[in-house]
Amino acid sequence: MNTNLFKYCLRLGDNSLILGHRLAEYCSYGPYLEEDISITNTSLDLIGQAEAILKYAALVENAERTADDLAYRRPEIEFYNVQLVEQPNGNFAHLIARQFFIDAFNFYLYSALKESTDNTIASIAAKSLKEVTYHLRRSSEWVIRLGDGTSESKIKMQEAINDFWLYTFEMFEMDEVDEELITKAITVDLKPIQDLWNKKVDEILVMATLTRPEDGYMATGSRKGYHSEHLGYILAEMQYLPRAYPTAKW
Amino acid sequence: MVVAEKTYKHIWKLFEQIPDPEIPVLSILDLGIVRRITSEDDTIVITITPTYSGCPAMNLFEEDIIAKLKENNIMNVRVEMTYDPPWTTAWITDKARKGLEDYGIAPPVRGSQDKGELFKEGVKNVRCPLCKSTNTKVISQFGSTACKALYKCEDCLEPFDYFKCI
Ligand SMILES: [Zn+2]
């Protein structure tokens, strides 16, 4: 097994799976019907993307674990999603800020990964990119609408951007997994992705009449499986059924 | 076993009878979901591709395909999923585009990947399936399913689904 490739697939899959789960929690809490449906549709896209990449992870691991085993039987320390996606939904501005940060990252990452020398990663990236393009359009529009909206919505949007800023650096962290896979052109250097991300974020924040937060303490650890306290609660709920009823089938 | 050309043709034909669960005027062939029919020894392998990654209809398609072929005495069937090349609305047939509009869903605008930059609305010429006016506007990027956006006609004032370009 290529351990680095396996870990990289988990990283991508876990980001989508955990965020998909968070968005599903918001079902029926949207500000109005159409938006509520948008949130759950985004959730569905993400869970679909997670399934595709976790299936591949299972294949790479070659240890008779399925995508479902990886999603529903792994402990917290073996999850590699960035801490941003496990943060609680908070208010609607929080949901949008978190979504905007990760959508912009996914957009540039998948744009690059669709050229991967690994055909499966390339095809999943190409497929996901089509969906993420819509996600980014929607979350960007909301950041602008709320930021450049009423005095109340502006305050809330700015607070949400500030609150999640410390979780944005982690997306661009690289370790030995990246090192090996970059030399094989399976994955890409995250530095240029970060530059593109910064440019997009600045552009949208200007349009939204919001202020880019100062960089301060930045969360880290997810590449090693260290998480905020929230992931444990998510897994407790998400994994309850398959763990309590191991033979249950869809 | 060599599978006869005739059998492949027969199977393609059978797929015309399998409707999309959400848009019953369309068959799985109209949507372009079936990519290949091949055979491995005595097993027929049907390769399908999802419209959207999370499309909840994929499992149903698989079951429907297997059931339809069993009905026709084709017993050894396996359904495989591919993401490459990714599904595109360009694969929706002309007949299906007409079927969509008659059903009340605006078909995807042709030759467009909806690449309009952010905030300049991607699609300007979505036609109202009811009164055929193109004076329409987007209400939400997501409609009743992930593959559709919600639009409103500014002339007849009816809301309608638009099958998004991807
Ligand atoms: Zn009309």
Supply the key terms.
heterodimer, A: 250 residues, Ferritin, 11 helices, 67% helix, B: 166 residues, GMP Synthetase, Chain A, domain 3, 2 domains, four-stranded mixed beta sheet, three-stranded mixed beta sheet, 22% strand, elongated, binds zinc ion
What does this entry show, briefly?
With 250 residues, chain A is mainly α.
Topology:
The complex is a heterodimer of chains A (250) and B (166).
Chain A: H1 3-25, H2 33-61, H3 67-72, H4 83-86, H5 92-113, H6 119-147, H7 151-164, H8 176-183, H9 190-207, H10 230-238, H11 240-244
Chain B: H1 5-15, H2 28-31, E1 34-40, E2 43-48, H3 58-71, E3 77-81, H4 94-103, E4 105-106, E5 136-140, E6 148-153, E7 159-163
Parallel strand pairs in B: 2-3, 4-7
Antiparallel strand pairs in B: 1-2, 5-6, 6-7
Lateral strand order in the biggest sheet of chain B = 4-7-6-5
Oligomer description: heterodimer
Portion in strands of chain A: under 5%
- How much helicity do the residues of chain A have? 55-70%
Protein architecture, described:
The complex is a heterodimer of chains A (250) and B (166). Chain A is 67% helix and 0% strand. By secondary structure, chain A is an all-alpha fold. The longest helix of chain A has 29 residues, at 33-61. The model of chain A has no long low-confidence stretch (mean pLDDT 96). Chain B folds into 2 domains: 5-87, 2-Layer Sandwich (GMP Synthetase, Chain A, domain 3), CATH 3.30.300.130; 103-163, no CATH class. Residues 113-121 of chain B have low confidence and may be disordered. A 4-stranded mixed sheet of chain B has the order 4-7-6-5. In chain B, strands 1-2-3 form a 3-stranded mixed sheet. In chain B, strand 5 and strand 6 (148-153) form a beta hairpin. Chain B has helices at 5-15, 28-31, 58-71, 94-103; strands at 34-40, 43-48, 77-81, 105-106, 136-140, 148-153, 159-163. Chain B is an alpha/beta fold and 166 residues long. Bound molecules: zinc ion. The site of zinc ion has 8 residues of chain B, from loops.
